[in-house]
Amino acid sequence: MTLSKAKAMGKDLSRRLAAEAIGTGMLVTAVVGSGIMAAKLAGGNVAIALLGNTIPTGAILVVLITMLGPISGAHFNPAVSLVMAVRRDLPWSILPAYAVVQVAGGYAGSLIAHGMFDLPLLQASQHARTGIDQWLAEFIATFGLLLTIIHQNAYSIICELGVDAARVALYLISMKLEKAAKQLEALGSPTRLQLYRMLVRAGDGGLPVGRLQERLAIAGSTLSHHLHRLILMGLVTQERRATTLICRANYPAMNALIGFLADECCADALPAEAGAGEAA
What is the pTM of this model? Predict the structure, then answer.
């Protein structure tokens, strides 16, 4: 290999890595930023918030894939790059570099989004995001997204028509709507519903775990199981104060769920006169 050819290959790799880093950063900025803005403007209406988050996500995917697809392939995700390496569309030697710049770009994009909305750049999550159900949901979401992207050479189709970008956006919408269904399912247990209502009535101060156990008159292990489920669904938060564990209702999540249920209340109801006419 000549020196000039080696330099050209190195320059080409640098361009590809820069495209992946910039694209991933812009994508995360758009996703996080639109989510923050949607939450502020939706007023607890989860349907509006979902649309305000997923439509910009689909739109930015079209733009980024169109601009950066010819340069790097527009993966923006280590899982996508891994699949492309398995399919031999990406050399295995380049895969680690792709993953590093994608993760770095994602972190940078999140920091930029927080800065744009005057939020603390670094924030500790208040929701536990683990458990078999959470990992299964993530696996299925990633698997479905990969199928959407790979199907019929989706990158070239998106660049030309934007068809698969719409599929991606619709898939993301369906996965987010499922969150509301899981929250309702978590509240389907009479004990959990009673527990949740206690925390809602307690206000921002919350209640210690010991007092919850006394009021419900259940075993500590049973209470831990129900609290764990509510925390996983984002309905309840916990904070440790010295030796006391304080539980609180997550009111923004509660309002979002209520907004989802009431969003289209009576939307298909017939006018009073029309209803009377049909009855006659």
Answer: 0.53
